[in-house]
Protein 1
Amino acid sequence: MVELGENLPEEVLALVFSLLPLRDCAAAAGVCKAWATAATSSVVWHNTSISCDCELESMLPPHLSTCLDHVHNLRLECEPSCKRSRQAAIELLTMMAGRAPGLRGLRLECRGEKPLFDAGRDILGAVSAVCRTASKLSHLDLRRLPFTLDDALVLQAAHGCPELRSLFLDNHTLVNGVQPGSVLELLKACPHLRALGLHLSSVSRAVLEALAAPDRAPFELLALRCACPEDARASPPPDEAWAALRCRHPELAVELELEPALSEDNVTRILQPAVPVAVLRLNLSGDTVGPVRIAARHYAATLRTLEVRASRSRELDAALEELAACCAGLREIHCFCVVRASVLDAFRERCPRLRSYTLKLKREPHPWRPTLLR
Ligand SMILES: *[C@@H]1O[C@H](CO)[C@@H](O)[C@H](O)[C@H]1NC(C)=O
Ligand SMILES: *[C@@H]1O[C@H](CO)[C@@H](O)[C@H](O)[C@H]1NC(C)=O
Ligand SMILES: *[C@@H]1O[C@H](CO)[C@@H](O)[C@H](O)[C@H]1NC(C)=O
Ligand SMILES: *[C@@H]1O[C@H](CO)[C@@H](O)[C@H](O)[C@H]1NC(C)=O
């Protein structure tokens, strides 16, 4: 292997190393000088995915830490309940914060259970430190952080990262700590933002108006999750504000995730006709038939994906068939309860662009796998 490697040009070696996990890449760097040069080249580090495993001894061998200068996109995975993994992630983020000028994309993912009452202050502090120095950061994805994000972090990202193109905040917590005022400030500080993921209660009429301002860059994606008490209490922006936004950004797609915290009234208030809903995920404790009917009525032209978690009923079957008949542009339908055969037929016949569906005619062991078309 060493002999073979010695004869390979550096670019080829680098390409091979770029496919290796970090640990193997570090080992390769120790083999010989030629391998070390290839293993520390920018091709290898441009897109880096690091998983802070519990068994990992030391995160990054010291001779590789300068490689962080080459990292453009970093995906960092850790397990917050494991002390070692957590510390390794914080150490790495802190190291990044010291060298962050080249960083363009950061995605953080947590695995496993988080300890009870854990606010993740240490991890969030390290993220904030990266935001303070990564002035070229374009993409920040914090959706898989199980910690409540607050105004301070959003403001830090706003002022530290004026180049932001996309920002996705935590979407698995049950509390929302981000006020519309911070989102407004973010929009002002980051004129190139085109994709945002937030809780519904972080979005006010003023936020939609700011997005619809004549000098804003085209805005493409607004992912909204409605799951916290704050979301249930907040009044959703009025339909006119949505209509104006849609008129200003005809390409805008809205992704809506509605979770059990919402009452039927709340759901009806959110599902207004002018929202350009492309993805709708319903996981409600109350009625689901009504919302499916509303979706068929309001979003026939824009809906691409529908996901439904509900109990089986004849009314739901009928509502789904109605929706299949209206939403010709649908690409995906995933229903996590058994449906009657005519529902499956309706989607297969009426939605020519369907490419993936989960429509089961009898109970199957979980997890239910989708059926892919062509
Ligand atoms: C890094 O990832 C981006 C986006 O996924 C991709 O467009 C780019 O080609 C990748 N760069 C390298 C050097 O692998
Ligand atoms: C929530 O995060 C997951 C990834 O963890 C993503 O697939 C989903 O689209 C997000 N939902 C919203 C509304 O942002
Ligand atoms: C949401 O539902 C709750 C309970 O029904 C109600 O108290 C609250 O006013 C509703 N909020 C909005 C904005 O409709
Ligand atoms: C749906 O809601 C239930 C009850 O709150 C929750 O346990 C489950 O994780 C949710 N499913 C998804 C996919 O969000």
Note: The domain at 1-44 is CATH 1.20.1280 (Monooxygenase).
Protein 2
Amino acid sequence: MLPYSGRDLNLSDKKIIHSICFMCTVRCPIVVMVENNDVRLIEGNPHVSGIEGSICARGAAGVGLLNDQERLKKPLIRTGPRGSGKWKEATWEEALDYIAQKINEIKGRYGARSIALAERAHLNSHISKTFVRALGSPNYFTHDSCCKGSLNTAFRSLTGYTDARVGVDLGRTKHVIFYGRNIFESLELKQVKQLVKAMENGAKVTYIDPRVTITATRADKYLMIRPGTDLALNYALMHVILKEKLYDREYVRRWVLGLERLRDFVEPCTPEWAEKETGIPAYEIVNLAREASEASPAVIFHYGYRSSNYTNEIYFRRSIIMLNALLGSIETPGGIFFKKGLKDAGKKPLRKLTDQELPEVKEVRCDGVGTPEFPLPDSSHGVVQMLPEAILAEDPYPVKALIVWRFDPLLSIPDYEKNMRALEKLDLLVSIDIQFSETAWYSDVILPESIYLERGDSIQEAAGLKPALFIRKPAVTPRYDTRPGWEIMKLLAERLGIGRYFPYNSLEELWNYQLEGTGISLNDFAEKGFVEVIDRPIYWDRKDGIKLNTPSGKIEFVSSLLENNGFPSFPDYEPVSPPPPGHFRLMVGRMAVHTHVSTQNNRYLSELVPENVLWINRQEAERLGIKEGQMVEVKSHRGRGLIRAYVTDLIHPEAVFMLHGFGRNVPLQSRCFNKGASDTMLQENISDLVGGSPALQHVFVTVKPVQ
Ligand SMILES: Nc1nc2c(c(=O)[nH]1)N[C@H]1C(S)=C(S)[C@@H](COP(=O)(O)OP(=O)(O)OC[C@H]3O[C@@H](n4cnc5c(=O)[nH]c(N)nc54)[C@H](O)[C@@H]3O)O[C@H]1N2
Ligand SMILES: Nc1nc2c(c(=O)[nH]1)N[C@H]1C(S)=C(S)[C@@H](COP(=O)(O)OP(=O)(O)OC[C@H]3O[C@@H](n4cnc5c(=O)[nH]c(N)nc54)[C@H](O)[C@@H]3O)O[C@H]1N2
Ligand code: SF4
Ligand SMILES: [Mo]
């Protein structure tokens, strides 16, 4: 008997396909049950340890995407003004020829550097990177900066590795401290399951957030913090840990550079000082430091996922990683670990198109990353929220063509109005999407990609304690005139004279290209949909074998990356300013049944959560005469929105909160059109200029009842 819960489905012509979910980027392994070329059920891959059949609501709702009449069905070329919704249906040849001709014109006039591509990093990113390099442009962008750019830089400044190289061993932890890492709503399925297991085994959870989230309600200890003051809390925790000698002296002596500088720096940061800043009682701070150290080294100060809240984000994220280092929890079971790839398991890594010899691109990036003014953000991702600024200012040069692939910059870069002005300056805007994103709606050409259930993608090398390979396979044939992205890129490249960098003619050829020399073949995926390359976790020896990638070979509290580029390792603490009278800080986030800006029009998910609401503290609401469920106007100096109030005691009085992704303007997305308000319309495009993330929660708003 098959171990699938769908086994009892009475399917004639039954097929079970192992694949990878793409309702969000977490990429959980799934099985898709197919009957007569239609998807009947999707569930988690039961063979994968830590997943064991689980799927989240969004993963199951992938079924709703497949036969959706509001999907993109054919290539479209715009015929009316931007946003007028006037399109001409085109063949693939017409649409691709049109784009190639425009790109060639723009290249001739402004140079290859004026062509940019922005995408949500995905399994085919080695293909899009190759495309941009082969064209001769430096301007390849991912979403990374908007999500976790400052965390990436923080990790590089301490360990020499990006955050992508790091994981948390929640399953074996004894105590985990989350700072607004709302793990039970902003999901990573495997991690949620690991955490639940650890909690059943007695692990403690401390949750810190100005808002009582679902994760807060599951925690052993919830601490309501004043928005934007977590750094003060961490400095006080370090103060207590150092003063009471709670740190792991042997580990710190071997692996940490700069303890004395830290000690001097946090000396004045007493728990009483932090209490005034954060609103968390001093005794709670002392207790937390002591309890965390009792659990060490199986303790995790969770460094977060989205790290794009405030302008000092890099220093906050650094402080979290330093707390782990002080308690010796880096590279240990139940703590934080460095992910190992195929190479660490003694195998040859997957081959990427970017391994080819590609033309060297010497131009500076249009976002300034890599120049002395903006040296630290990761140039392999760029800083995408600087793109609208660069387009508008034509500084350092004009950017005239933008291709977006699986990314919606209009909604995912703060300040909608400014983004719109930037897009209007482009001579060519192309969206590769599966539905009318907000950006697609204003594009010149829309290329419809087949959805993940209809297509395969490049094989995934999943690094971890036990590296493994996963594969996304088509489960059904495409419903409409759509194509997979890897094919779209190749077809476009051929028209631009760079086809030779895409040496595949089919999905199988692409897969075999990747697998070459690894000793692994496509057949190895047949039974379970993945290939394990090792059966035991790989840890580096904590006594002497941690391969840190910093110049000193240590965890650099005093950071050569920062200081060699003119930034301090320990800048003076600057308090975030409280909102001016009559204003609130606008906080944003996600919840369990929606993905960013992708799922608001999904037929099942839009039924579950059709709009967003504005969380507002009860006393503040009463003062403003706002009643539960009433429509309110939220206004910032950048824009406004109308939304229903959710009046509650469960949020700090300085803040209001809304889900990201609502307040949509595309009429052809009828299930979410005009529902709720958009955070992007209210936010200001301000960044952490050291780490690279936008400060999405920098903005203050007013709230008033409507009518
Ligand atoms: N204002 C504001 N901005 C934010 C955030 C916020 O909270 N507020 N959050 C930030 C964070 S953490 C992140 S990660 C980013 C995410 O930013 P985005 O990547 O822009 O958001 P997503 O919703 O993940 O996906 C964007 C687009 O991908 C399309 N898509 C989905 N599946 C496919 C597919 O298979 N193929 C193709 N071609 N397209 C597909 C969707 O239809 C959607 O239009 O946004 C960041 N920006
Ligand atoms: N269901 C679902 N799951 C997802 C995603 C999704 O779209 N949907 N997206 C994935 C992605 S790309 C990301 S980046 C992650 C995001 O995962 P998280 O970073 O865990 O989640 P967010 O929803 O962005 O929520 C941020 C939380 O921070 C709190 N917060 C705001 N200000 C402060 C502050 O000053 N201090 C503290 N301590 N807390 C504060 C907010 O109240 C909110 O609860 O989720 C991932 N998982
Ligand atoms: S968390 Fe949910 S939506 Fe995201 S990949 Fe996993 S099952 Fe799919
Ligand atoms: Mo994210």
Note: The longest helix spans residues 92-110.
